[in-house]
Amino acid sequence: MYPSRFHYEAPRSLDEAFGVLQAYGDEAKILAGGQSLIPLIKLRFAAPACIVDINNIPGLDFHEEDSDGSLNIGALCRHRTLERSPLLRSKYPTMSATAPLIADPMVRNRGTLVGSVCHADPQGDWASVMLAMGGEIIARRADGSERAIPVSQFVVGPFQNALAQGEIAVRARVPAARGTRTGTYLKLERRVGDFATVGLAVALEVSGGTINRAGLALTGVGPNNIQCTAAEQSLAGKSLNASTIEQAARLAAEAAQPKTDVRGSAEYKRHVVYTFVTRALSNRQASAA
Amino acid sequence: MEERRINVVVNEEPKSVDVEPRLLLAHFLREVLGLTGTHIGCDTTNCGVCTVLVDGLPMKSCTMFAVMVDGKSVTTVEGLGLPSELHPIQEGFREEHGLQCGFCTPGMMMASKALLEENPNPTEEDVRWGLSGNLCRCTGYQNIVKSVLWAAEKLRSEAGAISR
Question: Shortest CA distance to A199 belongs to which of A262, A266, A277?
Fold first, then answer.
């Protein structure tokens, strides 16, 4: 398949990139990993007049903790890096569980977390993880100013994000935890590499057996990733036991908005949400004991 | 028509070519350079037959523009071995009957090359995960996995021979 023609720019700095964005306005599209954008362009669902390839801009391929304990993930940090990251393995179990479940090895070598969240595909796994962890996208403007947009407000609809014209998503940020992080990502897929039939991100911040903050979010069971606010609130300040787990699982299943499709019936998917929450939280309870 | 000059090393040979930005890397390799060992299967980023190494990492050449490999090095199946001097991975596919129709084979081999470079002593499960982005419509996976394990052993024994 042949994409329609476009003008191509490969800026060497963010300043240059902002210059291109200014010249082309909403006809310009940022290309990072390209693993979602290029398929869209090939199918001609997207036909941007100008592609701004940011892969040659130094300083965007990183993931590191700030002095305040928050985690920053640069716009060119690939899934591959996150999959192999000792930092994530030791301190960010939800993210560490997610990275190897993104698409397949070749896509993970190229695709990026920030790009995935920007793409706002309702089937995207990272947006659920960011919702569960209270993550933000940092948008930068030509004048160097930045604003932090919580992912709950960043994803505004299917394939729609809250970036304003002239802004570039330069990194994602996960705020410091209150306590120790525990969590996981569970993904039911028809075959390896498929989009999720149901995905569940669980991110808890725990001290002394008490949950200071609970994050639960769902993939594949709604028009967007769904944050299970009621289930999260039901867990906050509590400890994990059979009754709190059951209540959270029920509230999460109620928050799901599944549709019957090739991947399964709505009832089935809702049941999987219930089962996944029960399983994920029971395992956390077992590992804490 | 807009064109850009790209400088890319393909199978250790430097190339300097003007390309249209919309030209996919897979089409560049096949139609501009005539390297038809890289196949195009699904064209929708699913099947992995177009896998090539870009700076040593396997990537889907149907999901990159040729302009994006400017300044990089690309290895295709033609760069793996010669008919007279097969790469151990190619030998493994021959020895263990790792191909039926052969269409997925170039992608399988390139993904295997990167897999074995990162993990010279993989388990069967490691191989299956490592090749999880490569589809075989003949469903010849059993023998493909055996082929890669055969190649791993051969590469290890060669490395052992060199170090002795």
Answer: A277
pTM of the model as a whole: 0.96
From CA A150, how far away is CA A133, in angstroms rounded? 10
Using alpha carbons, select from A159, A133, A161 the residue that is nearest to residue A227: A133
pLDDT digits 0-9 by tens, B10-58? 999 999 999 999 999 999 999 999 999 999 999 899 999 999 999 999 9
**Could you tell me what percentage of chain A is helix, strand and coil, using 3-state DSSP and rounding each to the nearest 5?**
40, 25, 35
Domains located in chain A, CATH noted: 7-56 (3.30.43.10), 63-174 (3.30.465.10), 180-288 (3.30.390.50)
Report the number of distinct structural domains present in chain B: 2
Q: Which positions in chain B touch A103 (Cβ < 8 Å)?
A: 133
Please indicate whether, in this complex, the C-beta atoms of B45 and A107 are within 8 angstroms of each other.
yes
Q: For residue A288, what pLDDT is reported? A: 65
Assess whether B72 and B118 both reside in one domain. Answer: no
Cβ distance of B48 and A104 shorter than 8 Å: yes
| A160-219 residues touching B, CB cutoff 8 A | 192-193
